[in-house]
Every structure is written in C-alpha cells, then in structure tokens.
Amino acid sequence: MNGLFKSVAENVPYVLSFLGIIGSMFLVAVLLEKAAMRKNGKKEPVLNTRKIAVIGMFSAISMILMLFEFPLTFAPGFYELDFSELPILVGSFAFGPTAGVLMEFVKILLKLCVKGTSTAFVGDLANFVIGCSFILPASALYAFRKNKKTAIASCVAGTLVMTVFGTAFNAIYLLPAFSELFHLSMENILAMGSAVNPLMTEGSIVSFVVACVAPMNLIKGGSVSIVTLLIYKPLSPIIKSSQK
Prior knowledge:
Blueprint: H1 2-10, H2 12-40, H3 49-66, E1 70-71, E2 80-81, H4 85-95, H5 97-115, H6 122-144, H7 148-181, H8 186-196, H9 205-241
Antiparallel strand pairs: 1-2
C-alpha cells in the first residue's frame, strides 16, 4: 500500500487526469441509464445500498480474474489476455451501465491495492478505458430493451466498439506512452510484433495494432460475450433477488 501511495505522489498530474476520465465515463453511463429508464417508464435510483454491495462482490471476482493472464502467440509478451470483463458484463446487464463503469473502476482500484502499478498507471488507465469501451455500449443498448435479440446485438456492438477503440487507443496513446516509459524505441516495439506475427507485413504502428491488438480484443469480447449469453439468464433471478 505504501508503494501505491508513493506512485500516486510521483504521478499526481497523471492520476488527476485518470480520475477525470473515470468521472467522465461515469457521467456518460448515468445519462445513458436515465435515458433508458425514461424510455421504459421506470423510476428508481441508479444505485442503492444493496446494489452497491453486489457490485462490490462482482468487482472482487473481476479483480481475481484479472490476475490470471494468458500469453498470446500472435502478440509480444507485454500483451496478455484476461477475462475480467466477464463478471462486469453480467453485472452491467443486471444493474445497468452505471454499475458497469463502477465495477471497472473498483476492479482497477482493488488491483492497485493488491499489486500496485508497474506502468505509472498507464496500463491501468488503458485497462479501464478499453474495458468501458466494451461494457458501456453493450450494457446501454441492453438497458433500453431487455430481450435475447438485444442481448446478442449488445454483445456484438460492445465487441466491435472495443476492437476499434482499443486498436486506435493503442496506436495513438498506449504504444507511444510505453515507448517513453520503458525507454524503448518504437522500432524495437514494432520488431517485437513482427518477430511473432507474420501478418505484420510492414514496420508501422497501424500494421502492428491491426495484426496484434485487434485480434486480441475480438477474442476477448467474443469469448466474454458467448459465456455471458449462456449464463446470464439462469443467473439473473439470483443476482436480482439479492437486491430485494
């Protein structure tokens, strides 16, 4: 914990910008959820005490899943796959997009308390915003009309948005930030990609993210979506009964 406080003290401007992004995501989620409630004629608080308690449990499960990372044969070693979005997608289908963003935040907070940060919060920000790019569109669409067809469409939309956003975010922000943080030239990073992925045919960031990052996000979004669609319906009555 002392290490975490030290990291915060050393990166105050970055932490403040991180908190600003979290606040913005939370505001967008609240506005979308309230719009869905108006459309469906519902009048209830976005969050309540019981819901927050269940959100905490889902966040803890998500953080545990985040600790189990799997290497990818088609990407450099600093890219690893985890399935921490699974409980968050299930929870956001049950409770709405506001809960989804809150679970993403609490997951990162718990991870920082357990493991700290080895990337000056750069990787943690990336995990949060890319996770939200999946959870927000999926849960918002489902909040407007809760049926099987919408659930499938929501998962497809969330996966596509995460893939496009995550790919662009890596190219524009994440890779340059890691290059500066770890004192690696961009040429070295691109060489790591071409060494493991023959589909990367040219030495450019665009080629790198298309060959290495986009497939990872498609695999993650697709697998989390499939499992969620299989387990959400039988779990839904149990999850929602915990709010009564």
